[in-house]
Amino acid sequence: MKDISYVIWKEGRHFVAQCLNVDVSSFGKNVEEASKNIKEAVELYLETKGTKLPPVDNVYLGKERINV
Predict the structure, then answer these.
(1) Residue ranges per domain, the chain?
(2) What is the pLDDT of residues 1-19, one digit of tens each?
(3) Between vectors from CA 36 to CA 19 and to CA 54, what angle results, nearest 5°?
(4) What pLDDT shows up at residue 52?
(5) Predicted structure pTM score
(6) Distance CA 15, CA 55 (A)
């Protein structure tokens, strides 16, 4: 068993989950479903790619306003 780190945010009607260890994302109709789906998506990705799971030691979440 390995740990993954991911973030979830609401985008329209769905919750999007993005893995921080590998470039994999998924979504669901709620946070619980998005969490379940990202775990499954990462497992499938690692099985098909034969890739090792790089660790993510610390996660910091930021939110800033920019001039656009």
Answers:
(1) 6-49
(2) 889 999 999 999 999 999 9
(3) 30
(4) 84
(5) 0.86
(6) 24
